[in-house]
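Page 37, continued from 36.
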């Protein structure tokens, strides 16, 4: 994935190697300066100190240049990797079938967290850490070479205690950061609770549940609090032990250096140089080892990323062998002997041998009790799910043979719950039809009875609707969604409770608009209000996973006087009559009171 940035990685690697070598050289120069201060000849001391000062200025200048090279070029590599991973992950997520999103582990918040965290963890394990490993590897190589050249005996002893120094430094850094497991996981429940409360703030406020939310949040923080307490105790003890080991190893190295000087085996200048250079390299080795948790985290992140990227979707939107949909469809839709159950609930059948047909250019209305599968028909036609058996056909061809993306261009949907994005009304109407002109947008809004209320807004079509369209009322959101569907001018219209959120007057206007726009198009309407589907060419009553009754409004009432449809008509008439009586009684009471 990072191959396009190979040249940046190469320059960054050169910078890393030189920076590591400069660290060892800096320690060498510093120890040489220290040894010069012990020389009794003042003139020699001043001359040498001046030379080393110029040398340190040169080293620091080189460090400035090569540190800049290292971090600039490795940052370019890392940021491009992060961007590329996120792009590929999102593309892979959007390619998956709807059943994948129904699974609990693929909830929207979790996917968003994966897009954010996994890409960063991959970058930190690969891009950032490689530069540190190269830098510290160069440091150790230069330091060990210099140590064995100057005084091999002391270098041998110091290398022997390297594991102790490295282990002590690693433990020290780990305990300073908190070496007690995944604290993010411990806080996950509290974080989720807070996120849900903020996202549903209107509901929380409406039910005066602020205190309840705070109490639940407090309870969910008790477990992380206990873990943090023990983390502090363990970190404190561990830090003390690490410090002891570190300074004990220093003491051993210095004692042996003094023994060598005492017995004339080496002089002070060489021993102090070897000690300083090797101790600096030990810290570098320790820093490399402290990256182990990042590599483990990065390894997990990479597995998560590639599990997502390598997953083959069960419904491929761009199948190679698929047939492109013609420019114009007749729009005949048929479900033949369809059995279906949702993948997350395979033991709950929705349809059993369902046969349904919407003739080209005609209107098919679906009615039935809640949960009978009316919206599932709409989902199957859009091929959000595959039937367990049977076929869904458009113009006589199984929709599995069509290219899915080109098929969906010929289908317009108004969902039961209108989905608006946090952008302008104009962008929401134009969604999925970016080539539409302003005149097209206004025409669609006018047909949907939305132009009047949009024009009355201060910013008109440029009004931002907020997250999930929160700035608009339910009826306004529905009308914007209907305008979006009108704009597509598709041959197949799917209306899933399209007028459920509208008042009586708006519903009448929309109904007239729908009749105009849907004239000559295949229209499948899901409705609870039976008054809106009286004029449908065919009304299908779905019950117990099958079509119980089918025909026009008059046909159903005539041939099935005691059927489901007739009972639903009577029930709605009774409800409306009772509501009218209540309104009349309320009016009379007000008249008497007056």
């Amino acid at each position: 994935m990072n191959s396009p940035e190979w040249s940046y990685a190469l320059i960054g690697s050169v910078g890393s190697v030189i920076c590591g070598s400069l660290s060892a050289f800096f320690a060498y120069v510093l120890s040489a300066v220290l040894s010069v201060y012990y020389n009794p000849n003042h003139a020699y001391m001043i001359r040498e100190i001046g030379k080393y000062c110029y040398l340190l200025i040169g080293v620091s200048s080189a460090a400035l240049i090569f540190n800049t090279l290292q971090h600039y070029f490795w940052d370019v590599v890392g940021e491009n990797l992060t961007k590329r991973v996120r792009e590929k992950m999102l593309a892979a997520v959007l390619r998956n079938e709807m059943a994948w999103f129904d699974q609990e582990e693929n909830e929207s918040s979790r996917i968003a967290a994966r897009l954010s965290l996994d890409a960063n963890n991959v970058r930190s394990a690969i891009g950032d850490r490689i530069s540190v490993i190269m830098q510290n590897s160069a440091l150790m190589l230069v330091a060990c070479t210099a140590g064995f050249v100057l005084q091999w005996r002391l270098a041998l002893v110091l290398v022997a205690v390297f594991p102790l120094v490295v282990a002590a430094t690693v433990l020290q850094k780990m305990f300073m950061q908190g070496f007690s497991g995944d604290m993010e996981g411990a806080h996950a429940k509290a974080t989720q609770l807070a996120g849900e409360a903020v996202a549903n703030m209107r509901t929380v406020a409406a039910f005066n549940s602020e205190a309840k939310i705070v109490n639940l949040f407090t309870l969910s923080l008790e477990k992380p609090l206990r873990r943090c307490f023990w983390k502090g105790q363990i970190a404190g003890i561990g830090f003390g032990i690490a410090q002891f080991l570190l300074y004990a190893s220093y003491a051993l190295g210095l004692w042996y250096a003094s023994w060598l000087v005492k017995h004339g085996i080496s002089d002070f200048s060489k021993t102090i140089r070897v000690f300083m250079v090797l101790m600096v390299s030990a810290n570098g080795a320790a820093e490399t080892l402290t990256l182990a948790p990042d590599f483990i985290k990065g390894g997990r992140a990479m597995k998560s990323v590639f599990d997502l990227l390598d997953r083959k979707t069960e419904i491929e939107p761009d199948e190679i062998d698929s047939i492109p949909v013609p420019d114009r469809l007749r729009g005949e839709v048929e479900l033949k002997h369809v059995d279906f159950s949702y993948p997350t609930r395979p033991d709950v059948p929705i349809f059993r041998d369902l046969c349904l047909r919407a003739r080209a250019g005609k209107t098919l209305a679906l009615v039935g009790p809640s949960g009978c599968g009316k919206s599932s028909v709409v989902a199957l036609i859009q091929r959000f799910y595959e039937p367990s058996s049977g076929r869904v056909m458009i113009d006589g061809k199984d929709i599995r043979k069509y290219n899915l993306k080109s098929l969906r261009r010929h289908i317009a949907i108004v969902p039961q719950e209108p989905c608006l994005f946090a952008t302008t009304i104009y962008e929401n109407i134009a969604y999925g039809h970016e080539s539409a002109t302003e005149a097209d947008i206004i025409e669609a809004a006018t047909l949907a009875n939305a132009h009047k209320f949009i024009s009355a807004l201060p910013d008109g079509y440029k009004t931002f609707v907020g997250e999930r369209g929160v700035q608009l009322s339910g009826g306004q959101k529905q009308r914007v969604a209907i305008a979006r569907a009108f704009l597509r001018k598709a041959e197949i219209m799917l209306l899933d409770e399209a007028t459920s959120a509208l008042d009586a007057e708006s519903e009448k206007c929309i109904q007239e608009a729908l009749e105009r726009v849907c004239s000559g198009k295949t229209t499948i309407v899901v409705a609870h209000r039976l008054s809106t589907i009286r004029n449908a060419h065919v009304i299908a009553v779905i019950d117990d996973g099958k079509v119980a009754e089918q025909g026009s409004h008059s046909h159903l009432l005539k041939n099935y006087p005691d059927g489901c449809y007739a009972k639903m008509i009577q029930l709605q008439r009774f409800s409306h009559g009772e509501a009218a009586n209540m309104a009349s009684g309320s009016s009379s009471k007000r008249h008497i009171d007056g």
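The radius of gyration is 37 Å. Flag for discussion at group meeting. The chain has 22 helices and ten strands.
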